[in-house]
Amino acid sequence: MFQFSRLREVNLASKKEDFRLRPRFKERSSSVELFMNPEWHKAVFYRDPLARFLSGWADKCNPEMKHNSYCMSLFGANYVPFSKAVEKVRSWDKEKLDDHFKSQTSHCGGLDKIIHTFTTIADLDAPDSRGAVRKMLVKFELSDDSFDEIYSNLDGHATGARHKLKEYYGEHPEFISTIVDFFFVDYETFNIVLPDFALDALVSLKDTNDPNKLSDKKLEKLMSIKNDVAANKTLHLDEGLSSVLKFPQASMVVPKKTQV
Questions:
Q1: Which residues 6+ apart lie within 8 Å of 143 measured at CB?
Q2: Coil vs helix vs strand at 255
């Protein structure tokens, strides 16, 4: 029987077999073949980069850790305040980031190239969380035990970043602009709508000389995404499945029906 599975670092865009599939299927079929099979329900879950970056910083640069090699390698110290972390982003090399901070679009060989093949494209930071995902699994008669095994520690890993956006970004439009600009490809790929306060902040920088302000073209694109979502013209194909998993880069493939 096929069970709930999650794909990570799967180069689906180029259809190469240089990836891992967890957990292993009992049938030894090519993972790319399984992905391309129209009988399978394909789902990708994304996060607003503002929340994702805040969550990653809070999780990886915990001030209570005396020796934090991860924070040191990424931000240059065992602990850095949020303002310094955002400042560091401006000098990052996008090609050298790991799963926690590279763009979500870059996974699976480039999700922007294959996003049209997914049946479900859902917001990871929606409040219904595990319940909505579990509902999808039940719909396809998948094992709840498998789901619980893979995602058993969501609560422990959560940082609550979605509820802290205004606290960390609200008075700093340049922070918002820096993160949105760096991860702009994710806003385009997943049609992510910025929170109103964040979009207003970007607009407030438009006619200033701030070196970190967003380009007019990108700002217009964000406004267009907001208007399209309001008009129900988005990529979200599975109504009611707007879910949050605590894996920022998560994408997964599940079968439409149980197979033996």
A1: 1, 3, 4, 137
A2: strand
Alpha helix segments (H runs only) across the chain? 31-36, 49-60, 69-75, 82-89, 111-114, 129-139, 144-150, 154-157, 165-169, 173-182, 184-190, 196-205, 216-230
Total residues found in the chain within this entry: 260
Dist. CA 177–CA 200, nearest whole Å: 11
Least confident of 144-153, 185-194, 204-213: 144-153
Q: What is the pLDDT of residues 116-129, one digit of tens each?
A: 888 888 887 777 75
Collapse the DSSP code of 207 into the 3-class scheme (helix H, G, I; strand E, B; otherwise coil) and give the result.
coil
- Provide the Cα torsion 147, 105, 171, 155; round to 10°: 10
Q: What is the pLDDT of residue 192?
A: 94
